[in-house]
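Review form for a predicted model. The reviewer records the input and the model, then writes brief findings.
Reviewer: anonymous (R2)
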Amino acid sequence: MTITITAFERSPDGGRGLARDTRVRWALEEVGQPYKVRLVSFRAMKEPAHLAVHPFGQIPTYDEGDLALFETGAIVLHVAQRHAGLLPEDANARARAVTWMFASVNTVEPPILDLQTALFLEGDKPWNAERLPLVKDRIRGRLNQLSARLGDADWLDGAFSAGDLMMASVLLRLRASGILDEYRNLAAYVARGEARPAYKRAFEAQLAVNTGKPSSG
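Model under review:
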């Protein structure tokens, strides 16, 4: 059965790897599964056909036979559970990897998304100058904890897993702000993720959509 995912027809980030379909592409590349991409416009995302798969009108979605999924974390978890390469064989290590997946989207990502809201949607508000430092402080609070836990290890819990895929993808959103560079081990951690051949293929494929240039993968 062919796997089909959806992605932005034109990504808001211009194809820099921040759109969430990149996380799904990366997961599929890590486990060696071919996939097709159905590009959707912002208008199409709000139409009944897309809403039937993703009730909140977002991307990505995942279709495989009679299975249709939405929510990036759920899709990556499904891919990791169905195909070898993203979850450890040991049951306890597997559970810890899943825990890191949840931590990335439930604990680390929310304040990062709050920063993006503050910068791009609330920048003209009179109270933004006071709010912005508070948002950044909340991010640093989380990064202090994550940095302490990672220490000088390459990955969060032994070998690279779906937990690292999701966490590195979340942290990538901080690069433009400069906050990530305040944490040398976290910046190096993200760089290790970007250096993986599977990530490079996923990034190039997403970039190609937005530049019109074919990917080399």
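Findings: The two ends are 22 Å apart (CA to CA).
Further findings: The chain has two domains: 3-85+198-211, 91-196.
Recommendation: see findings above.
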